Amino acid sequence: MGLFIYLNFVYVSRSYQHYWLAGQVKALDTLAEHIGKDKVIHEHESRALYPCPSQAARHIIGVAKPHNIKDVQAIVAWANTHNIKLYPLSTGRNWGYGGGNPVEEDCLIVDMGDMDQIRNFDPDLGSITLQPGVTQGDLYNFLTDHSYPFFAPVTGSSPHCSLIGNALERGYGVTPITDHFQGITEVKAVLADGSIYQGQLDQMDVESSKLAKWGAGPYVEGLFSQGNFGIVVEATIKLEAKTDHSIMIIFKPSDDAEDFEQVVRISRELMQTQKKVVSAIKYFNKAYSVALNMPVPRDELAAPDFDITAWLNDASKKHRLPEWLGLIFIYGNDDLAHIAARECKKRLAPHCKSIVIFDRKKIKLARAANKILPNIKPLQMIKAQIDTVSASYDLLRGMPQSRFLKAAYWRAGELPDNQDDYHPGRDGCGLIWYAPMLPMTGKDLLKFEQITKDVCARHGIFPVVSMTTISEQCITALVPIMFDPATESEQAFACHKDLFESCQAAGSLPYRAHIDSMAWYGADNQTTHFQSALQKAKQHIDADGLMSPGRYQRRKA
Q1: For domain 244-396, which CATH number applies: 3.40.50.1820, 3.30.70.2190, 2.60.40.10, 3.50.50.60?
Q2: Full DSSP string of 157-209
Q3: Which region among 146-155, 486-495, 547-556 has the lowest average model confidence (pLDDT)?
Q4: What pTM does this model have?
């Protein structure tokens, strides 16, 4: 009798699944009739389109690729008719955070990559309107081709990544407007009922609405940042004018913890007193320097008694790599930039082993020297370091770089010969980003690094850490949980969860979540004030939960 019930259950389940899938295919055919067959991809053709090195994967029913706002509205109307959830994305390259996968299963991906127009550029004021498919490389080429003297707000990711997608996720960089969502002044979005959201002043045809971020009245546009209230179809951003000089300082703090704390204090004070000149400061721990300069020890890793900490210590001693490495990014005219650089060096010198200032002339000399250095083994690390310094300087000047994506391939993955082809999701890499916000004090940064070391040691993960200032008060740490997807996925997921819980206990959480960790925010078994307010807003704007279900929402037990 029990076997009969079980077999009957299996039969009913499979029959329902077959019926459900047939219904989705029919629904997608209907969508194709409305927006065009070339703009709809069925489930079986879309499975491999949005891979993520974090190995996150969700079942999607298909993909819609709108070309204009009318297409987006037609997709929303169709989704309401067929009760299908939508998950919009810009280019699907949210690597390490879930890639192009939705938070929940069985959504239709709305891929905005074909909406890639650049509009309404004001060459005097530096205001520009972009569609979601415009990439870092697109904007850089547009500005360069027309000799417009403005910085593209780039990140350390691929030139093929979306500017608007990154800004809405509150990404950051080292060019003068480091907080990219801060640079957004206006948003246009399609809501769940198909209507178009515009700011109050923009809807009243106030010309200056694109120039003032806050407008008048409550700031509603914030709901579209990391939210699920609509599909952003365009946004206006402000660009920072290029300065005459850009300077990068590379410094190595003394290995003593007290010296590092003083370095962080001085860095904070430099940002407080040299605003708009000292744009951003970065720190990299010893494990980061080792990973940047040495290949992963594949043979040693196979040994059951392999000690990551001991190997990192030995490797850093062998190649004279510091406990910490720092970068300072400076912008200004000739006199102002060099005065600021000298002030930085003077104040940091008592607590550092070395400080090197790179301006345009020194970078040019370094590149020339690198060309004539023979490519022999004793010089390969030096040549690689010069390449990294050169690429960092280009990033400082607003030129998008693929080079830094190479780090995603350190633990696993097939590295393409051409940097422009780097795609960590497609190439078999293993990477989950963990990015908590920290107070900018030396004690807090050292405390976080120790937590990271302890957690990573429990799970056999290399404790690689970099940090980038968001302001003079706050710094964002970035831990790449690098792993081999073939053998280490479970320990990487466990490490991610352990880091989240350990850091929460210590008073810090990520500013940006992986799709698997969005449900970890909030208190257990209760609704926070934040969640309650969010649910009320969602109920009014998207009562049926059509848009991006699950984003930053605790799952019901």
Answers
A1: 3.30.70.2190
A2: S-TTSBHHHHHHTT-B-SSSS-BTTTTEEEEEEE-TTS-EE--HHHHTT-GGG
A3: 547-556
A4: 0.92
